[in-house]
Amino acid sequence: MKGWYNPRTGSTGEDPHGFDGDAGAWSTPAPGLDSPLPPFRPSLSLERTRFAVDLPDASTVTVDVDHMSGRASLYRDDRHVQTADMLVRFPLGSDSIEVAASRYGMQRIHLVSANGSQRRLDPAPGTPEHWRAQLSRRHPGAGRALAAGAVIVLAVNLILLAPQLLEVVTHLPLWADRFTPFISPINLPARANTALTIAAALAGIERALTFRHHRLLDAETDGIES
Which stretches does the entry tag as region Disordered (predicted)? Predict the structure, then answer.
């Protein structure tokens, strides 16, 4: 399992939260040192997101996340400090910012203080996370309905797709040559399975936008990602 990367020391430490990194090829050059923070364009919200936090010294730290390349860039008072592949722990004196993301959204974006206290950074205006948080504040009923709908979709997917997946796995030679293959009582047409997979992906995005994750419930979207 990939550990947290510290860009100051260039070392990789143990991952205390159990996240798998998703660093891809660098599709664009990293920002230059001390370059200004570019404006966030909502048209790129499927590819990027951004979070910020005010520090006790009155400075503002911003983390710009590029989902496509698996990178995070740290800015302080709107000036670039460093860029690194996720998982990454950016040092801020005695504190640090931990950043982890999947293709569905953020898994962790927290300021960790020296005393062990943690605070999640605030989503920047225009980002999907900011829009979703505003929806819940302005229309709490709709927000709860979306969250509940995502849970229902993923639960149904587990019930309907898990037996079919188990049948496929147990028919592989490694299993079938030693044990009796499992026959799924559920056999949906390919079109229905495709629709369920798409619905699960949308549910996974909804849960990522609200920083919800459950090892069992979100197992399918974790599998789709991998």
Answer: 1-41
